[in-house]
Write a structure and sequence with these properties.
The complex is a heterodimer. By secondary structure, chain A is mainly alpha-helical. Chain A has a domain at 260-470. Chain A contains 21 helices and 2 strands. Chain A has helices at residues 3-8, 10-25, 34-52, 68-87, 89-95, 99-118, 122-140, 147-178, 183-187, 197-215, 224-230, 233-256, 265-285, 290-310, 314-341, 356-359, 361-375, 381-395, 399-423, 438-456, 459-468, and strands at 59-60, 64-65. Chain A has a two-stranded antiparallel sheet. Chain B is mainly α. Chain B has a single domain (5-89), classed as Helix Hairpins (Orthogonal Bundle), CATH 1.10.287. Chain B has 3 helices and no strands. In chain B, helix 1 packs antiparallel against helix 2 and helix 2 runs antiparallel to helix 3. The termini of chain B are far apart. The chains are: A mainly alpha, B mainly alpha. The interface between A and B is large, with 43 and 48 residues.
Chain lengths: 470, 101
Amino acid sequence: MTVTELIALLPLMILALGATALLLLARGSVGRSWPLVVGALVALCAALSALLLPPCLMEVGGMYAAGPYARFFIALWSLATAATLISSSAYLTRRQLPSGEYTALLLFAAAGMGLLSSAVSLSGIFLALEAFTLVFYVLIAFNKDCPLGAEAGLKYLVPGGVAAGLLAFGMALLYAASGSLQLPAATAALLSGAPMQSVALAGMALLLAAFAFKLSLAPFHFWTPDVYQGAPAPVTGLLASGSKGAVIAALLTLTATLPAAPAIFEPVLITLALLSMVVGTLCALAQSNVKRMLAYSSVVHMGFVLTGLLCWNHTGRTAALFYLVGYSVITLGIFAVITSFSADKEPQQLSDYRGLARRQPLRALALTVLLLALAGLPPTVGFMGKLAIFSAALSAGYPLLAIIGILVSVVSIYFYLQPVIQMYMPSSSSAEAVEGHAGEYTVIALCLVLTLAFGLFPGPLLELIARLTP
Amino acid sequence: MIVPLNHILLVAAALFFMGLSCTLVRRNLVMILIGVEIMLNAAGLVLVAGSAFWQQLDGQLMVMLIMAVTAAEVAVALAMVVYLHGRTGTIDVNTFKDMQG
């Protein structure tokens, strides 16, 4: 490995080395918040170096890209991690959780997600995906006092293992069929006329199944609600935004190497998208637990993003990425609010939200706006994202997906409004208001401002993403 | 290659489906993890075969990387097994069903 290659990987090196240093220095620091601050600074440094330093190489070792697309996602996931770290300070202190290990694990996850978004080879995808999946196994079960944490960890471990097996075997079949692990060459074996097309198609099917597990597309979504419910709220925020977003970024690189969807996969992908939208919405309607409702809503949103990718053109991919960025901002904001509402127990049931607007008017208002943004009401980024996706789907000739998408969006307003209605109802309980902390307020405000700003002025972000998208 | 690639692919596919059915059918967490290992090793077999077929080293290199990842995964997963066993005294995954709906 040359020095130039190391410099090209600088943002990821900052994250990984920072995490290692924190792991050694801040061992067992229970109830202190300085590791979180240092960790957030490390993540910010990584984001800045990704944004400001011009990449000196386009590819490192044929495995990872260092171009603008990769840099954008490294910066995005670093910022998401920084936001998660800043907002989890009070949460960790209240529960007496070791903040040093927590920070180190989150930074490792950020490095893994950045690597996955920049992967340009099948081996790169596998290694990066495993890198942050292993971290999330630990993070989900991080709170040993929470009885549901262990169960959630288990329910992420088993599907995660199966997905790793599917991914590895699919990758191996594609390699056997094409003789290359690098992306354009590896997927070239899928094109009709390639000598071992059937082997390659089988490999691609397994690869898609593994991705569907990670993105919790229906019918591979069964683990999602349990993991969301049992995991600590800040971890859930990063799991919902970053880990799924990084997989989307890798899937987008993969699809961009093919001129059109292989004929066999088009109906499969359409079915996945439709099932995700419909099943996710129907299940979310029946939930009385807000975190489970958000889990099913993430299934629906991943269905929307898949619709964008399905268009298989530049407009569709741009729309999918724009939606992904918007969804990540909103989700991080929502989980930051839930984190800041958490006293000794996280508020999960709808009844826990009763009368919150009286006690915590500002954060209740923020949660209201963010939930409405998730439902896709203007003038938020959720609306602009849906507009972009559905118009791309219509112009690419998938009217059914667009119509079902619009229908489920309308239905989804019902379950997003449930917690809002509860918050603005008068409450008889004399529960104490949970004090918010400066870090939590900063993150919530930032997410709120970005949600509205990208909704009112989507132009610059759309242009940026259109330039990055392959 | 002395053995045709197709034969190796068939053996690996059989191995893979044995591993997959092990993860789906067995309810003991350790057996599920063994199933995952079998799936990953089936992938390793295909990579080695592909490497020999195409006369290049990428596949063999990837097998080494998969082994390293697998070792890390087993370390984390077994820690989880010990933790779950300490909490509930069992590693039967069917007993973990507090969350439903």
